[in-house]
């Protein structure tokens, strides 16, 4: 939206969520003697939310991010930085999928001819409760359609990988092959927290920050271990993997 009203609505959309991420980045910056803009790039998903796509692995962000970073570095307080972040977001383009042809309802996958790995992602695109029992069949149909497309367009795909806090919930696990969800292990590493694999745990289905998890997170930030940043998150994130054949079998995808 280009209207003032629309810009205001957008700036308020993730106000609490941005505030929470910013507090984490500020704590990381303080504990690790890192510039605040660098900490924000590495430990929030602002780069994606600003419609700029995945943050570059080498940290060489483009002009739009550099503008945001310069503004951030010039501010002295959390309140000022939070205000600048919301203002910048309000005039940023909408977040877009990097692979629009790989979107199937609430699911999205990343794959290419250069690798045999398919990476799964989940987004809340269902206002009726995406992981409720009443919507489970809809999610499975999306997965069936998605894996049929993968089999057709990426015949060399051999493995499926996933990373998310959602693998800790029965509502999500029940959608996948048993061998896939049984492979889950807690991710106890990392210094980049730019996606929803961890940040998604704080939002309810309406996009509001969950108060109880917010309180736990803020308490954890106060005693942040700079060598184990992932421990600040109330819920663990998991890594899962399985041969793609078990998905074709589970969803009845013919050869």
Mean pLDDT metric? 92
Strand content: 5-15%
Q: What is the overall shape? A: globular
Q: What's the total count of β strands? A: 6
Radius of gyration from the CA trace? 19 Å
The end-to-end span amounts to 45 Å
Summarize it.
This protein is of the alpha+beta class.
Characterization of the model:
With 255 residues, the protein is α+β, with helices and mostly antiparallel strands. It folds into two domains: 4-96 and 188-232, no CATH class; 100-187 and 238-250. 44% of the residues lie in helices and 10% in strands. The chain has twelve helices and six strands. Strands 1-2-3-4-6-5 form a six-stranded mixed beta sheet. Helix 2 (15-32) crosses helix 3, helix 2 crosses helix 6 and helix 2 (15-32) packs parallel to helix 11 (211-222). The longest helix is centred in the N-terminal third of the chain and has 18 residues, at 15-32. Residues 1-7 have low confidence and may be disordered.
Topology, element by element:
Blueprint: H1 4-13, H2 15-32, H3 36-43, H4 46-49, H5 63-73, H6 78-90, E1 103-104, E2 107-110, E3 117-122, H7 136-153, E4 159-164, H8 170-173, H9 178-182, E5 185-186, H10 196-199, H11 211-222, E6 238-243, H12 245-250
Parallel strand pairs: 3-4
Antiparallel strand pairs: 1-2, 2-3, 4-6, 5-6
Helix pairs in contact: 1-6, 2-3, 2-6, 2-11
Descriptive terms for the model:
255 residues; alpha+beta; 2 domains; 6-stranded mixed sheet; 12 helices; 44% helix
């Amino acid at each position: 939206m280009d209207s003032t009203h629309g810009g205001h609505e957008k700036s308020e959309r993730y106000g609490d969520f941005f505030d929470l991420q910013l507090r984490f980045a500020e704590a990381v910056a303080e504990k690790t003697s890192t510039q605040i803009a660098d900490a924000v790039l590495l430990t929030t998903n602002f780069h994606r939310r600003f419609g700029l796509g995945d943050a570059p692995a080498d940290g060489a962000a483009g002009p739009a991010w550099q503008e945001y970073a310069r503004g951030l570095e010039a501010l002295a307080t959390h309140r000022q930085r939070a205000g600048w972040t919301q203002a910048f977001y309000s005039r940023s383009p909408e977040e877009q999928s990097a692979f629009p042809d790989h979107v199937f309802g609430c699911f999205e996958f990343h794959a290419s001819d250069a690798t045999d790995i398919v990476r799964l992602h989940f987004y809340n695109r269902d206002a009726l409760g995406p992981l409720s029992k009443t919507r489970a069949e809809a999610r499975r149909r999306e997965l069936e359609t998605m894996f049929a497309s993968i089999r057709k367009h990426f015949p060399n795909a051999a493995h499926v990988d996933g990373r998310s806090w959602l693998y800790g919930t029965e509502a999500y696990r029940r959608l996948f092959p048993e061998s896939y969800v049984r492979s889950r292990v807690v991710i106890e590493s990392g210094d980049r927290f730019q996606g929803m694999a961890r940040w998604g745990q704080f939002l309810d289905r309406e996009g509001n920050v969950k108060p109880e998890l917010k309180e736990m997170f803020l308490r954890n930030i106060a005693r942040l271990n700079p060598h184990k940043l992932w421990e600040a998150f109330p819920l663990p994130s998991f890594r899962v993997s399985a041969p793609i054949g078990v998905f074709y079998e589970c969803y009845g995808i013919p050869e």
